[in-house]
Write the structure tokens for this entry.
Amino acid sequence: MNADRPSVAIVGAGWAGLACAVECVARGVRPVVFEAAPQIGGRARAVELDGLALDNGQHILIGGYVDTLAMMRTVGADPDRLFDRLPLSLRFTDGFELRARSGSPWAQALAFMACPSLTWGDRLAAMRLMAAIRRAPAADETVTQMFARTRQTDTNVRYLWAPLCIAALNTGLDDASARVFAQVLRDTLLGRAGASDVLLPRTDLGQLFPVPAAAWLTRQGGQLRVGERVRGISPNADGFALDVASGPELFAQVVVATSPHHVPALIGALPGTERIAAEIACLGYEQVTTVFADFGEGARLPQAMMGFADGVPHWIFDRGALGGPPGLMACVVSAADAARDDTERAVIDAVRRAFPSLPEPRRVRTLTDR
């Protein structure tokens, strides 16, 4: 890449920061990516605990993430090889099951109509919600209020909408934005053919995008400065000055791609940012906890991904069925508010009640993020 091209500093080497750097290269701009942590990937990366290869949370993608999948292909990460792509399936441990075919929104409608666990009242209520979300409401409301307005049944909320909302937004129904959740449903259930497909990773999260993106950026002349913290950003006659350990560095433009709680300290010296910094400082955060339990090589689930209607955990993934260590299960609790030890014990108890053939786990490792 031409060294005379304009340069941009990107603060944060998570998926957003790395995607920004790839886009900069495509536009002929030289990216320099700063990451304070000793590794790239942010909140979706590989980790190792006591010799056990894990991720820092169980993540999935959906077929509607077309830009993400295109970005993966740009850096040489082939989604067809790295994911198991399956039609949407909501299968719960108590027997409820909805299976959709990969295809148009009509395929999703047929799935509702054909689901034996739904009554005709449930099906009609689901169609009411699908009709209501085709246009964004003039004013926002909570997801609970939207369900009341569209007269959703208890069954629909319990097995269809609540699990999807909590998984997508990591926020309870009484606090989640109906406008945001409706957009999620439009992009998936009402999206293009295949938009609702579930993409289950067959490798660690680092190999999906961060690692190949870093290698691609290096080949293109970009810089990744891992383990180098940006302490602040200040205005400069030619752009911006970044305060790093080696001294101020100047850039024409800066993109901040960190977690929100880091932003106020970074932009505090920039004029005109007081309002946005104050708004970000007022944000609240919900925890998401993933309990990794090793039940031994003979342990398997009936399906690679299954739900718990009671919500602790919300979802369980058979990592052994997805190319990981046999018998390793990832159990996800979204919007988790209990103490870590209590959540861990509740999850293990619920999993063993649902699958009585599973033994006591040999190892349990719990990761909590927000």
User: Anything to note?
Assistant: The longest helix spans residues 154-169. The radius of gyration is 22 Å. The chain is about 35% helix and 25% strand. The chain has a mean pLDDT of 91.
